[in-house]
Specification:
β4 (105-110), α5 (121-133) and β5 form a beta-alpha-beta unit. By secondary structure, the chain is of the alpha/beta class. 28% of the residues lie in helices and 37% in strands. It contains 7 helices and 11 strands. The longest helix is centred in the first third of the chain and has 15 residues, at 20-34. Strands 1, 2, 3, 4, 5, 6, 7, 8, 9, 10 and 11 form an 11-stranded mixed sheet that branches. It starts with 7 loop residues before the first helix and ends with a strand.
Length: 256
């Protein structure tokens, strides 16, 4: 099954404990520290079901969300349908390596390891070219990725997550395999949804995630006319990452 197929229907329930508000607090902290002008417009590439986008919209920003998964976007659009004034938020289907608009933004986001879904060097560079194309000069690119030194030190472990929902229970099992040459971790997900009336659903998906090292990130950004400002721990971006920091924030700006 393709990435974020049926699994997308369980996505918001599985990540209901994810601190989107806290992450957006961190994002705004980055704005205050590194943006030389007031941020008003944000492009959210790989927006998923829109959880970062809606939180930032509620804080007064103009938001465009882009994702290639129609199922994920359908969930975002269901949430959007409950908002009366939609003039400053919209969602579009598109591949972040090729999507284009004439608009330029103060900030481009790639959150929840979206850059890591770009597995090959050419995919990373294509994605960064879209970031550059849609950033105003001096605008910020903010992203989070898996940090190579921590991935190789800690190694992925088998995980089981159980989540209660109003209509039943979701049980997700995950185990991973590392390809250290390609810098890819393949996560195998098996998700079982047990409903209150015993109408069970099961789905299996494999997600391949690239992890990154500091100097390659710096080089990828440099050749894309994006200057790396800081790599920081996630979500506490002020702290330097180390071998215990599985996720990191990346902060860059558009130059030339």
């Amino acid at each position: 099954m393709s990435v974020f197929g049926k699994y997308a229907d369980f996505y918001d329930s599985l990540y209901q404990d994810k601190d989107y508000k806290g992450e957006c607090d961190a994002i705004e902290g980055i704005f205050k520290k590194y943006s030389k002008k007031k941020v008003s417009s944000i492009l959210d590439l790989g927006c998923g079901t829109g959880n970062h986008a809606f939180e930032l919209f509620r804080r007064g920003y103009k938001i465009v969300g882009v994702d290639r998964s129609e199922v994920m976007l359908n969930h975002a659009k269901k949430k959007l349908s409950k908002i009366s004034d939609k003039k400053n938020i919209r969602f579009e289907k598109g591949d972040l390596r090729t999507w284009k608009t004439s608009e330029k933004f103060d900030v481009v986001l790639m959150m929840f390891a979206v850059l890591g879904y770009q597995l090959e060097n050419k995919d990373v560079l294509q994605a960064l070219s879209i970031v550059k194309k849609h950033l105003k000069l001096g605008g910020l690119f903010i992203f989070d990725v898996w940090y190579g030194p921590a991935v190789l030190t800690q190694k992925p472990a088998k995980r089981i997550k159980a989540v209660e929902t109003p209509s039943g229970k979701i049980l997700r099992k995950a185990y991973s395999e590392l390809d250290s040459f390609r810098q890819i971790c393949t996560v195998h997900y098996a998700t079982l949804y047990v409903t209150n009336n015993n109408q069970n659903q099961e789905t299996k998906e494999d997600h391949q995630m690239r992890y990154f090292f500091p100097q390659e990130l710096k080089l990828f950004l440099q050749v894309s006319n994006l200057e790396l400002i800081k790599l920081g721990a996630f979500p506490k971006w002020e702290k330097d990452p180390d071998e215990t920091t599985w996720n990191i924030f990346g902060i860059a700006k558009s130059i030339r």
